[in-house]
Write a structure and sequence with these properties.
homodimer; about 375 residues; alpha/beta; nine-stranded mixed beta sheet; 11 helices; 11 strands; globular
Chain lengths: ~375, ~375
């Protein structure tokens, strides 16, 4: 395990890391060696990209690990950069995760495209992994990440936290490394990916695979399958929001200057909600690698904290962390009832905290006030 | 307006009509002439495919018009064929729509691929319409269909009925042709397509357009965009079912003989729910034309019975039919609350009947017992 110079970025083709812009300067890289995978095989010479905020105290008791969701990055907070992070209001000096007191770590998950070893990384044969990148589970990620955090001098985290896939990663940490997690916050996700969630992931992945530029995943150096990735993002984004939110924002309005009933089906103008989804699609395709989208989707679909560990109750019996479980009231993808099932199976009497929001699943990204209050009350006892 | 010989099938490439198999023998064709479209332009020489069951009585008072949904056909019931229809239990001798007493008509919507003029039909220049097929609204369809039903000697229907897009077609009939509809049954749809429904349609259409074989819609005679159409169907099918239904049927089970965590992302086995969706995709791609899917999706997204008619209440003020409004309790695509909005805006005191089913939107296709009971009680007074 060695910390690498910042210039080591094993990427070919479009570097998603570059889309971090000035924030990329905050990213560090560490080699964690060869990684034996849960389902067999070894991923050689794994590099993890990560960011930190604040200072680790003398007894290394103030460390917090934040896990990003499916298309997130390690850039949780702006820190010394000018680029806002995806939980900017939650992480910083004076914030609920107060970087004047805490040492916050966030790691880009293996398989991703923000600097950690993933399908766009260079394989030992000098070519990008592409379609040859192995199937990764959240458990694989937890093992690789532990090596990194130990190298940072952290034996145990005061808190491991995440929402959506980040929540699944946090939960997997609490089960896989019970002695390394004192508090665990599992937001907007249950104990395992469900048939519904697996179903929604499938057309997303297939839309990427069916893109004319996908080239069986070996598109680096050529055109990228942006249209397919954009379709995946549209599907996902709708599931991340609520019917009520889309209705209130867009209704049946036409995009200004366009007429959805003009011309032919191929040339007609757009409804406002279509323009909105176009924007979401373009935005993701401009910053994310399609192969990473597939690898991380499959990893998320593998989420089943009880796999190979008996019943769910048996699997969770060894958890030593105090677990904070929270769900978004209007979440239609990761249903609150799944958070209740998780809480009921955890040792002790674990309540479910409901984040009251109309937006849907994305409430775990938008409701910083409520999340901060939950952390204040139930983790930091403020 | 003339009834055409049955052999007139204006199709090139794969004939979806052929996928009706023996049922195709029951399909008749009628030319309804040039159709001036709601949004301008003329669709020349429109042919409508239709089926009938039973016999029109002397005063033509026993006619029922059944409208199919997005990918449906005129084959509502088996009739004299060996091929079950999509509402077989509802239509036939002794059924709630009793063909010993009623004369039942069902018409393939323009834009479709089951015999009516659509994008796979031959345009005046001798080539398939393909991408040149104009944008069609449900109002256009109602005008074309009225010409056909008048030619059959039907001035007014005892009942016009449909579910999902079929319900939208029925409602549009009751508003566009108020004197021609005595009862109208509007199942599992509201007064207009919502932002949510428009949002879901978009990635479906884009998945077809982005298929390598789509060729801008001019794929007839070559490979058809089956993969894209299959992706569209997967998205749609999930929205047609409920989370609970998918969960109860499939959970996280692997497809027998396959391992979702084996191999690479490209080669892994499937979850059972993925295999199920694959089957739904293959099935539709084997029987439906991708351009028709786009044309009819856009027609359904155009659904807004109040367009150009003032407020919804004003638009519905002229309805003379007794309207039966029903919604499926677990429908997450066409929400029951949208049926309540429609009912509240209709003249008089119109209740909403709830079809109690866990399956989701598709309850309008599966809950024949409840639908039959509603028709018995509220249309036929049995």
């Amino acid at each position: 395990m060695s910390v690498l110079p910042r210039h080591r970025r094993q990427h070919d083709g479009r570097s998603a890391l570059a889309s971090l812009g000035d924030a990329a300067a905050a990213v560090r890289f560490a080699s964690v060696g060869d990684l034996a995978l849960e389902r067999g095989g070894v991923l050689p010479d794994v590099v993890l990209a990560y960011e930190t905020w604040g200072t680790l105290n003398a007894d290394a008791s103030n460390a917090v690990l934040i896990h990003h969701a499916l298309t997130g990055s390690s850039h949780v907070a702006r820190g010394d950069t000018d680029v806002p992070g995806w939980w900017d209001a939650l992480v910083g000096p004076g914030c609920p995760l107060d970087t004047d007191e805490l040492f916050v770590v966030s790691i880009n998950m293996i398989g991703g495209c923000y600097g950690s070893t993933g399908p766009s990384s260079i394989a030992p044969d000098g070519r990008p992994w592409g379609s040859r990148f192995p199937l990764i589970t959240l458990r694989d990620a937890a093992h690789a990440e532990r090596r990194l955090t130990e190298s940072l001098g952290i034996d145990a985290f005061a808190l491991v936290i995440g929402g959506s896939m980040g929540g699944a990663r946090a939960l997997e940490w609490a089960v896989t490394h019970p002695d390394a997690v004192r508090h665990c916050a599992v937001l907007a996700i249950g104990a395992a990916s469900t048939a519904e969630q697996i179903a929604w992931a499938q057309p997303q992945v297939l839309a990427i695979r069916n893109d004319p530029h996908f080239a069986d995943g070996n598109y680096y150096g050529g055109h990228t399958p942006d249209a397919g990735l954009g379709i995946a993002r549209r599907i996902a984004h709708i599931t991340y929001r609520s019917e009520a939110e889309l209705g209130a924002r867009f209704g049946r309005s036409a995009q200004p200057g366009e007429d959805p009933l003009s011309g032919t089906n191929a040339s007609r103008g757009r409804y406002a909600v279509e323009s909105y989804l176009d924007h979401k699609a373009t935005s993701l395709a401009g910053r994310f690698d399609a192969n990473s989208y597939i690898v991380l989707s499959d990893a998320l679909m593998s989420h089943d904290v009880a796999r190979g560990r008996g019943t769910l109750e048996q699997a969770l019996a060894g958890v030593r962390a105090e677990v904070l479980v929270a769900a978004v009231t209007s979440d239609r993808l990761y249903l609150p009832e799944q958070s209740f099932e998780l809480a009921a199976a955890l040792p002790g009497d674990v309540p479910v905290h409901l984040v009251d929001a109309a937006i849907g699943h994305d409430g775990f990204l938008t409701e910083m006030g409520q999340l901060g209050a939950l952390l204040d009350a139930h983790v930091f006892g403020r």
